[in-house]
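Project standup — Tuesday

K.O.: blocked on the structure for the chain from last sprint. Re-posting the sequence here as requested.
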Amino acid sequence: MVFAMGSPVRPTKFCIDECLDGKFPAINTPLSEMKHPLVQLAQTIPPDNGKRLRKLNDRIWWRARLSAERAIATELSPAELDERDLPPEFSWWMGYCGLRRDVYPALEKRAEREAKYTPKSACTDFLLPVQWDTDRIVAEQELQAQQRFRHWLLQGIAKSLGDGHPYECVTEQFCITVLVRADSGGEAYLAVGIIGFHVDVDQLALILGMVPGLSQEDWQPEPSRIAEITPLPGQLVFSTLLSPTVQRAILEEAEAGE
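H.V.: unblocked you, prediction finished:
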């Protein structure tokens, strides 16, 4: 999908509630990628398909049309992004959409009411993103980070299954090492070493739970040297046995994710 000015145009919570029947996609779908024609239309605002909506004059709103339907979007200023704890890549937002005969009259009346006690003739702040929108972005990004890390983890285990070498991944929060010792056709021994300043019990459970076919009870802490991993100060090492069935599941997922 080609985004406006290289950035996604996300519908706000207000827009989804008011115009899209309150149907929010699962957290693994960014709101800018909703399978709705008006959300997809908004990705062209501006410059490809956008014209300025003049009557909402408290800020610049761009409009796009698809047959009789309309979508409007605006760009937040750097100050507005800071106020909402939003990164620059999320500066474009769709505030409203629907049929032309319904969109503009409804917006103009509401904007006039909102401006009643201000010096402005129109106020469209109600169309802008709120804390929920920021929280949704954070949740999407956290899930995406987990998916990327799980992809690396399974790739590392699969490679170590093949060659017996350790593989390491370094993130902002921790460093993790995986190492597999395997017998031909039998069980394999997996060791996972984790070190970092921000590793807590929940994160440990999340990381160890990413290996398919295993439960938390399958893992054992290792206080001393295991395989080729010698625990460093502050490092946590866990080990488990991988059955041939679990090995196949890891290899299949790793291959599918390549």
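K.O.: great, moving the ticket to review. The longest helix spans residues 131-163. The chain has a mean pLDDT of 87.
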